[in-house]
Amino acid sequence: MRVQRRTKSRTGALVLGAPSAVLLVVLLVLPLLTIARESFEPFYAGRIGSTGGGLTLANYAQLLSPTYLLYFYDTFRIGLIASILSVLIAYPVAYMIATQTRPLRRKIYLTLFVTLMFLSVLARVYSIALTFSPIGFLHPLAGWLGVSPNSYTIAQVLVVLGLMHLIIPIATLTLIGALQNINPRLLEAAQSLGCPKWRAHLSVTLPLSAPSAVSAFVIGYALCVSAFVIPMILGKGRVLFVSNLVFNRFSEIANFPGGSAIAIVLLMAMLVLVWGISAGLHRLANAGGR
Amino acid sequence: MKRLSDDLMSILVRILIGACFFFLLAPLAIAVVMSFDARPYLAAFPPPSLSWRWYDEFFSSDYYLKGLWLSILVSGLSTAIAMVSGVSMAVLVDRTYFPGRSLIVSLFMAPLVIPGVVIGFALLLFLSKIGIYDGFWRLMAGHILVAMPYTFRTTLVGLASIPRSYAEAAMSLGANERQVFWTVTLPLAKTGITAGAIFAFAFSLDDASLSMFLSDPKSYTLPVAMLSMMRADFNLTIAAAAVVLLALTVIIIILLDLTVGLERVLGQGLYRG
Prior knowledge:
The complex is a heterodimer of chains A (about 290) and B (about 270). Chain A has about 290 residues and is mainly α.
């Protein structure tokens, strides 16, 4: 009886788990191993796919040239600016929604931000491009900043704005959860002891919601670094992210080994970023708890 | 003194919140209004008269309609497959410990962290090495992968919230494991599963980075069609397409609110990735 049940549950587990395991191996593990292998293949212009020749580190060595490093630098720098600004702006907005006492208003704000989170990236990018195009009302921005509308500066500003449009709703929704769990009495206590409201926020609200703010930042930064459509359209060819570089390797010169090496480095950078910041956050939270 | 600093801060914060709403909504409003522009060319906002011209153009363009239809087909099918896979794996992970369990969980969640272009590039290369060149099957492969984390995670959250005692109560009343699963566990996890399916469908529908690699001239999704139009010529048919996508988003939100409730979206810790 007992033996029978065990075999039965084992076949059950196999039936439940096998299809997913197969999907993951075929759709994720094998493709990643393929590009890892491909990234060591020599590249000959005009030939698609591997040659079966020797292994080389040339595709990685190439990435150390200043042009390539600049793409990585731009990606991580512009992404950092956009995600920090997004969290800073999302903070008061999330606080306003979390402390909203009227149910209808709360529902309206919540619906708005969930809709904005689900909104298609294409719709965002087109709307922003239209707003800053010669027919849009923010076209004079370049003039106000004293630069040409086709300058590198304006391309950077547009990419940052595009990324912020994507991240602010996500950061807001992430922060609302943490902010509404803070007991309002703590704030009242600080104020009744003579603390100005803004300082009470600095010493009560901010530390209590810091872990959420950091995770909102990590999510936002990760999204920025892997952004593809936003720099492709809003960067106007002047700002290119690493993602765009991978696509160009494939679509313009069919350099699969070179594209694979960039993809592998991007993936590694991403994992280090997410794990690094999460580990740092964990340590910070532990230190704060003591 | 104290009062003054508080008043000043609250005015500043209000201005910041106002600016944020303006920044998030004004561009969308402009795109929506411009999509009804009656002029046959791109000219300054606001339009002097309104018409359905660009929608007529969108809905009579074979290029866009093919993309829209394939988008819905690919997202629908891949969500269904990801649902079966995600739900069954979540059930397995929830009730048993087995070697490699945490590896399976991180593999399931990996598509959220791995940049879309990396997945797209890797799949393209791998599929061409095993002889799959057809755009439709390549898109299916990519979109199943995009959908899997959502169906898996929400089901897992749903299952974890069911008290163990419910299943025990059913069993002590004579139900076997299978009956418990179909009559107790699954109905209670239904909200989580629905949320996951809606999320998976929405994010698969919106994907462009993977689809740019996996499409071919015959099989492409609506975002891919829009992207190549945006790079070629910036006319207002794209505005109409953007509004169609916006309308789809609104439908998805209404469905989400009716089936799951928007308040629960917060609690699930669900964000796009």
